[in-house]
């Protein structure tokens, strides 16, 4: 604030307080007034600066946001960066997981064009930043895996309860099994409890519960396998939908079984054909 503005402010304050300008005041009152006005001017100017906070204000000073969550976003989604690589030197991982070391971005782009790869950012915090070469199918599969993990973390599975007595009627057991299948299709967990019949010995409850699980028409996984509980008076297990790994293993084993069965049937046909040829040959020799 200029000296002229300060002088005008002092004169205006004196006029409003004492009805006279600063020239009509005593030296003591003038000194007191000057100190008061200067302190008010200093306080008002300080509150207007961006580096000060007004007294009694609960507002926190602005803090610059860091990019600490950038890697988390990169891990949550798999997206190709295209040909626009901001860094000159980057660390590259091949599509098979091999560390290719530090490469110039021009060499990486040339390799992408030759092999048909896409470049995915893994970590920008490393020096140099870490990228991976991936095919379109690899990116798609990785996106599906991460979506499945996010769904499993976001929505915890509900646990359903199903209790019945050993020796239940066949029709009622079929209804229970259908209920288990319906809950599994909705990605629920099921706690199945098989109780011993009143007045009868509680024998082979664990085996009986395993037989019930085998009647389920869809593939199941176990949170806990059948075991005897309640001092031997019941058997209990917790079922869950199968994981992606279990489904893939089941598919591989089914394909192997079909291949084995096909080779066995072809061998049987060849043996039968040989026997028939031998029989016809012996028959023709007799004739």
Automatic annotation (TrEMBL):
Coiled coil (residue ranges): none
InterPro entries in alphabetical order: T_IF-3_C_sf, T_IF-3_N_sf, Translation_initiation_fac_3, Translation_initiation_fac_3_C, Translation_initiation_fac_3_N
**Could you tell me which Pfam families the record lists for this protein?**
IF3_C (PF00707), IF3_N (PF05198)
Entry-linked Gene3D superfamilies: Translation initiation factor 3 (IF-3), C-terminal domain, Translation initiation factor 3 (IF-3), N-terminal domain
Residues annotated as domain Translation initiation factor 3 C-terminal: 158-239
Alphabetical keyword list: Initiation factor, Protein biosynthesis
Composition bias of kind Polar residues appears in 250-269
Q: Does the keyword Protein biosynthesis apply?
A: yes
Domain Translation initiation factor 3 N-terminal positions = 81-149
Q: Name one GO molecular function term.
A: translation initiation factor activity
NCBIfam families noted in UniProt: infC
PANTHER family, alphabetized: TRANSLATION INITIATION FACTOR IF-3 (PTHR10938), TRANSLATION INITIATION FACTOR IF-3, MITOCHONDRIAL (PTHR10938:SF0)
Family as reported in the entry's similarity comment: Belongs to the IF-3 family.
Q: What is this protein called?
A: Mitochondrial translational initiation factor 3
